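Progress note, project year one: complex with acetyl coenzyme *A.
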Amino acid sequence: MTTDERGVSIWGLGRALPERVLTNRELETMVDTSDEWIKTRTGISERRIADEHTATSDLCYEASVQALERAAVPAESVELIIVATVTPDMVFPSTASLLQDRLGAEGAAAFDLQVGCTGFLYALAVAEQFVRSSAYETVLVIAGDLLSRITDWEDRATCVLFGDAAGAAVLRPSGGDDGILASYLGNDGSGAHHLQMPAGGSRHPARMETVKKRMHYLKMNGREVFKFAVKAMGDSAAEAVRRAGLTFDDIDCYIPHQANIRIIDASAKRLGIPRERVYVNIDRYGNTSGATVPVALTEAWEDGIVGPGDNVLAVTFGAGLGWAATVIHLTEELRHL
Ligand code: ACO
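Model obtained:
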């Protein structure tokens, strides 16, 4: 950091989850699966699914209002809104635009960022640069997805994994030079075909044929993504912690992308982080794409598991195939509830 730069902190956190709970038992009636298989292979017991009237921007709005209230920051003072999503309300305008209007963040810049499950940490890194350089004082970062809308409910290999959620963070300058300490973002596009929604873009525009071929659903090669994830989580975490000038002993809470409990456990073991310092909520929400980290961070803070003075390590992987790891020192600006 140069002398004319400043620290960037999280001032407020919020989360939104649909009320409807879809249990493994219910999934047993939909596809050829079992509660036992899902729990042992993934760690998931239930997930939340949005009703037909709810769109991604609705959950993003709920999470944003909560984060802004908790930060005691009025929406009118937000200067930039970044929404990380792969399930925008529509292809355009951006979900961030819809949110900007609904929040009353008049004149704020707004755009979406589309990098799948790593989206929140990518958006956080982008937002951080704007605040650190003094371009903006207040940036709202949200990750929200309704993966249920692009899940093939006839494909047992994927439909048991996902859920809907949104999480939000308000970023502002910190009193000191701490706050977000380091990030490490990366991508290996040679594995892009292992996780994709093939149709609906310029390669395969929506047609009767693409619908018939079920090309508007998420397709995943689970085994390949699993292998990639364990390595990417370990490597990116190590690099982010190194860039922060810390060691894993300095990490008070590890928040991994909630995609599979076996991936979470394997990465924690590889990093030498004891289980009591790993935050897990995959059992209740499944994989909520970019929302896993902000939802988990918000919950951990609400429950008093993390607070000012703590170092949090968040690590994600996903479509791309990409990875992102961020070390955050929570500061006094994130007040107790
Ligand atoms: N119920 C019962 N059996 C199933 C189910 C199910 N829901 N799904 C697959 N199986 C079967 C398979 O058909 C296979 O049967 P076979 O041996 O007769 O062929 C068997 O279970 C084993 O299948 P695998 O795919 O090898 O199972 P695996 O242990 O790899 O678990 C899983 C699959 C859970 C998808 C795992 O590979 C995984 O988690 N991969 C990573 C996925 C991921 O993290 N994605 C995140 C990126 S996407 C995002 O975050 C939005």
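The chain has a mean pLDDT of 96.
The pocket of acetyl coenzyme *A is lined by residues 33, 37-38, 41-42, 116-117, 156-157, 160, 195, 222-223, 225-226, 229, 259-260, 263, 287, 289, 318 (CB under 6 Å).
No further modelling is planned for this target in the current period.
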